[in-house]
Amino acid sequence: MTAQTIKMYSEKEYLELEREADYKSEYYRGEIFAMAGAGHNHNRIVENLSIEIGTFLKGKTCRTFSRDMRLHIPVNGLYTYPDLLVICGQNQFLDDKDDTIVNPTAIFEVLSPSTSGYDRGAKFHFYRSIETLKDFVMIDSLAVAAEVYSKAPNGMWQLMSEAYDLDGAIEIPSLGLSLAMKDIFAQTNNLKSIN
């Protein structure tokens, strides 16, 4: 039995392929990983977030980008597509193609069974190296649960806000925004209770 060789790609090769691809892929240390599709609750939550946050930010200097905006983290080389990100101030792009952001203020990930461990672990670790990032929000797609981690002035990350029922809310400090759980989870199906 022979071992299969994994094809390695440069960042330039990845970007060339990705800009022509019909589907999205992440890139890390020479490897390309196809991203899985998302289910009903996942998509509904992302849309709800986009509506709520976009409405709140209207007329302000911050703006949202949904899961089709690529994010690059130069410190560790990851290219990925957060479910939603917010940028305050000027957009900073990787290059003149204006399709890869490098300066998010807040990142929102909706957790699915296949991505929860990665989003909570390695991906959150990668995100913490982004100098401009102030808040990281994780929202469960199978249960009414949300957590907000914020960067303290000393650079340490801490749990700042959490909610586990539809009567609760989470606070996003960098945006001065409170999000009601009933709005985040509107029109979702078959949610479990964590309590």
From TrEMBL:
It holds the Pfam family Uma2. Residues 13-179 form the Putative restriction endonuclease domain. The lineage of its organism: Bacteria, Pseudomonadati, Bacteroidota, Cytophagia, Cytophagales. It comes from Dyadobacter arcticus. Keywords: Endonuclease, Hydrolase, Nuclease. This is Uma2 family endonuclease. One of its GO terms (molecular function) is endonuclease activity. Coiled coil: none annotated.
